[in-house]
Design brief:
The structure holds 2 protein chains of 2 kinds. Chain A is an alpha+beta fold. Chain A is about 20% helix and about 20% strand. The longest helix of chain B is centred in the middle third of the chain and has 32 residues.
Chain lengths: ~70, ~400
């Protein structure tokens, strides 16, 4: 799966970090999203999809590996 | 509270719903009138006290869509923005707006001055200090002996102390800012009183911000004024927002959450036996109790087709997240409290760019406060019959007047 983020829309709610800390982080100074892995393994797919759904700013887009 | 008489509209819809609707008998449930409206359909057209048309959204899908849609504004100065009670519109014109009531790009500019202070890592690092505050409050309550009012002894002081620590506000002034915060959220008091409370808090925070400018410390307020990007009035308004939002909401969630667990002892026992369930339990309590019970207001900036319903530019929308969080579409048997449920999709913190900035802090406080309460007081029980526990019906944030407990 491919994960794309649009940091400009980030409002720093931290939902993604709370849901998949292996894939998402926040900048120490600005609090905005940082992507740790662009192609997380299938074992993280469900959590990454949940993070995308929970993101209030619609920052996270997921491609590939449906289901 | 106004009680509209039913009137048939030209489009055939009935308009019998008074907004804000009266609280029902249960302190946990959304007003019965909203639940009834939802049974008829997730989008209901209502008239507010001033006759303004407003759309009441009671389902999950629509609230989430509107809150995440930039065509709906959070700016209370936009004509048509729905106000639940008289006077508040006039008050807005005399108030310095914060990011809570601003749209992008100004919203993002202000909010991003604070996002770094509320990142997960920073809040996680605060846990030992939060634990200490929780333990000390409980020690003091236990030393005094029961029965005690859990609101005054625990639910209110804990988040007040935490936000004071973070913001750099002296806790010694807590009676002053707690009293005025309550007035700000009171929809029944005279608007002049609300204005006076707001002025008193603004003056207080302006002076405090000036002091931080002269003598900087390691607090959010100090960092905010050091950036030099905000006017004196803006800095005070943001400080006020953080102070009020930082203690009133968490205090009410702590008290109501405790009452919910006392009312559902099997759930409390489950948490005592499996403390690792507490994180999920807090999400479930946030969903089940949704203390922003009067809804989240927005105004349409352009005509929007909302799932077949045309919302016109300038019309108000109330996203009723309390009923949304009980919506069967998302939460099976949503009227039931179940601490093992995956409730993470709840809208208790709102949705969209305005979603609660302090949510990591609120979560940490609630997990620690409720977890510690259950662990240290295995005999915790109500000291009055459940029916006698009084809800603060006048407040924008659902909560309890007092919670008498023994242990």
């Amino acid at each position: 799966m491919q994960v794309i983020i649009d940091q400009d829309r980030c409002c720093g709610s931290g939902q993604c970090v709370l849901t998949v800390p292996a894939v998402f982080d926040q900048g120490e100074e600005d609090g905005l999203v940082r992507l740790l892995q662009e192609s997380p393994g299938p074992e993280l797919a469900a959590d990454v999809r949940l993070a995308a759904a929970l993101c209030p700013g619609n920052v996270i887009t997921v491609h590939g590996d449906p289901g | 509270m106004t009680t509209d008489t039913p009137t048939a509209r030209p489009d055939g819809t009935a308009d019998a719903l008074a907004v804000p609707a009266a609280h029902g008998g249960c302190p946990f449930d959304p007003p019965p009138a909203y639940r009834e409206a939802h049974r008829a359909g997730p989008i209901t057209k209502v008239s507010l006290w001033d006759g303004a048309p407003c759309w009441l959204l009671t389902g999950y899908r629509h609230s989430r869509a509107v809150l995440g849609d930039h065509r709906f504004s959070a700016d209370a100065r936009v004509p048509g923005f729905p106000f639940l009670v008289p006077g508040r519109r006039e008050l807005i014109t005399r108030t310095t707006p914060t990011f809570l009531r601003l749209d992008d790009p100004e919203h993002a500019r202000q909010r991003r001055m604070l996002t770094g202070d509320f990142i997960i890592k920073r809040v996680e690092a605060l846990r030992p200090q939060i634990q200490q505050i929780v333990d000390e409050a409980l020690d003091a309550m236990i030393a005094k002996g029961g029965p005690a009012d859990l609101v005054q002894e625990f639910a209110l002081p804990v988040p007040s102390l935490v936000i004071c620590l973070l913001l750099g506000v002296p806790y010694a002034d807590h009676e002053f800012f707690q009293r005025h915060s309550r007035t700000l959220l009171d929809i029944r008091v005279d608007i002049e009183q609300v204005d006076a409370a707001q002025q008193a808090l603004t003056d207080y925070l302006s002076d405090l911000a000036d002091r931080k400018r002269r003598e900087p410390d390691d607090s959010v307020l100090s960092r905010l004024v050091a950036r030099d990007e905000l006017s004196r009035a803006e800095a005070a308004a943001m400080g006020l927002l953080l102070l009020v939002a930082g203690h009133e909401t968490t205090a009410n969630m702590t008290a109501l959450g405790t009452l919910a667990l006392l009312r559902h002892p099997e759930q409390a026992e489950r948490l005592r036996a499996q403390p690792e369930l507490m994180k999920g339990a807090v999400e479930e309590l946030l969903r089940y109790l949704t203390i922003v019970h009067l809804g989240i207001p927005r105004v349409a900036l352009e005509d929007v087709d909302l799932d077949g319903t045309l919302v016109r530019a300038g019309e108000g929308v109330l996203c009723m997240v309390s009923t949304a969080n009980r919506d069967a579409e998302l939460f099976e048997d949503g009227d039931r409290l179940d601490v093992t449920r995956d409730a993470r999709r709840h809208l208790a913190f709102g949705f969209g760019i305005h979603q609660c900035l302090g949510q990591p802090l609120a979560r940490a406080e609630l997990q620690i406060a409720l977890g510690t309460l259950l662990r240290r007081l295995p005999g915790l029980r109500l000291a009055v019959p459940f029916e006698e526990v009084e809800v603060r019906e006048e407040s924008l944030v659902n909560g309890l007047r007092a919670l008498p407990v023994s242990w």
